[in-house]
Amino acid sequence: MKKNIVILFMFMFSVCALAQGTLKDALDYLPFSELPYDAKKGVPYANTYGIQNIGGVIPNRLYRNVQCTDYFLADDADTSPVVYGKFKMPGSSNVLLAVSFGGVTDWMTDVLVIVDANGKVLDSLETNVWYFPGIPIKQYRIDSGALVIVSVLEPISAESIPLDSFTQFKGNRVDYTYRIVDGKFTLVAKRKFEERVYTKAQLSSRTYNLWDGNEQPVD
């Protein structure tokens, strides 16, 4: 089932993406975005640029379940990648790009990509996983020093929880913090938060981001 991504929670494509350029084209076209940056719901993208992803040079998957173990269209051209953020990295000539995959599907995955000045991919990190109408399973922030924090909901149950039909599940929010070192994402911290019941109604709220739950850390 397809739905127009403009209807999707992010209302993101305020500027139409140009069709099927390269990462170098995106680097040349897009202005730098300011840091810090929070990938919050309901914030339109200022600029976007559609790119090719020939050969899956940026790894990507669209997920069917909360655990992110059931996926489809992996590294497929139909995922319609769009660059929507371009960030400077302190002390480096490399650039951090934010890329969204999913096009007009009900599923969306965002990936942060480290590229050099010629658009060559040095490393990538999956940072957002969403399902219509704005249910986040992963969501990220970047601080002023280009430190990346990815918040992930990790269910207690090992049984697969379908994104399109769940009503609630017990789980923990876990924050993974990455530092960019020598062109690579390096995990430097992991913080687990208290167990909660997460409901579809809560996660679908247009004003709810994964870091808004006031969960208390347990480690």
Structural class: mainly beta
Helical fraction: under 10%
Spell out the helices and strands N to C.
HEEEEEEEEEEEEH
Q: In one word, what is the shape?
A: globular
The count of DSSP E runs of length 2 or more, i.e. the number of strands, is: 12
Instruction: Please tell me how large the radius of gyration is.
Output: 17 Å
Q: Give the mean pLDDT.
A: 90
Which oligomeric form is depicted?
Answer: single chain
Largest sheet features: 10 strands, antiparallel
Strand content: 35-45%
Number of helices in the DSSP assignment: 2
What does this structure look like?
By secondary structure, the chain is mainly beta. It has two helices and twelve strands; from the N terminus they run αββββββββββββα. The strands form two sheets. Strands 1, 2, 5, 6, 7, 8, 9, 10, 11 and 12 form a ten-stranded antiparallel beta sheet that branches. A hairpin with a 7-residue loop joins strand 3 and strand 4. The chain starts with 22 loop residues before the first helix and ends in a 15-residue tail after the last helix. 34% of the residues are buried.
